[in-house]
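Researcher: Structure for this, please.
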Amino acid sequence: MELVNGQYTSSGINLGEIAATFDAPVYVYDGNKIIEQYTRLTNAFKPLNIKVKYACKALNNSAILKLLKNHGSGLDTVSINEVQLGLRAGFKPEDIIFTPNCVSIEEIQEAVKLGVHINIDNISILEQFGDIYGNSIPCCIRINPHILAGGNTKISTGHIDSKFGISVYQLRHVARVVKTSNIRVNGLHMHTGSDILDAGVFLQGAEILFDAAKDFPDLEFVDFGSGFKVAYKDEDITTDIEELAAALSKRFLEFCEEYGKTLELWFEPGKFLVSESGYFLVKVNVLKQTTATVFVGVDSGLNHLIRPMLYDSYHSIINLSNPEGKQRIYTVVGYICETDTFGWDRKLNEVHEGDILCFKNAGAYGFTMSSNYNARFKPAEVLIWNNKAQLIRKRETFDDLTKNEVEISF
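Model: Predicted structure, token format:
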């Protein structure tokens, strides 16, 4: 985002004009930023055979999926519906990995029929998978390394109390299941959580995966998930991708030599690719001053952007309508019948009713976690690409709220 001639723009497109054209609330994504992040990651690991599988749970609009596919990305999916979205967007089945959690064997079988990579994260499903397929269908195994990493307990997935993955302490059991059912394991997977800063966490996890690999002679890839931290505040420290790549690449090449063949190195970034590309634009409905606080009430709430309420996440807020106004302190809240505070005691350029505010870093887990709570409509989505702003999802209408209801007689 840049301030040009008193107007905030992204890739040269005026964000205020987007709000005027498509109305608010609206999610806006800058495709150039997404591809910039994708290119940075792939370039950092360029000497290796790296495969990026975009974690589409972060943002699954088909236009975003097609954009990343066209630039060489694969796809990481966690539900059979995400698999279908990926296939609909044009991804080849072999470019999709399916990493569900606590799903039925029937959903796994659906994914097998669609031809995607299967990633299994519990012994029960592994046993059932082996009984059904033997070595006819390969699978990846997700390991829980028992590493506590991530910026919030709700996004830390690799620690000992996490529901994700098979414990490293159960690998002897896994080896027995694999041998007994003649399962062909072609990949090992690990994901410790989001907002990881220390390259040492990845290296620690790498050693666990490399050690586990000794029991699996048919590997084709190892998958380190993601968790790269992006900046939510100007002073935030982020993952140094280039430093991580230098350290991990060196150790990975050593491992491949020890293993006896060159494997593919996979990553599954979600937030890293799309978070900073996203802006959520809302309109100020009302200014409400109490004895202690000046509230800015906007035409949105936790139904559209739940991260601040769910994760205590921080999103910078900018007044697009008055970029050079005097700064005052406000608390920005939503219109939902819950406490849905976007930000306490924020310094904003003076706010007036009708102004357009912008939440930055809204590309990841914004629209995909939205809901119809309070019977509110989900917002529109817009993509900045090829020097123009294009609508990629229409705003919902009342018919969308009721179309699946079934009338009964009373």
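Researcher: Any notable elements?
Model: The domain at 2-28+275-402 is CATH 2.40.37.10 (Lyase, Ornithine Decarboxylase; Chain A, domain 1). The chain has two domains: 2-28+275-402, 31-274.
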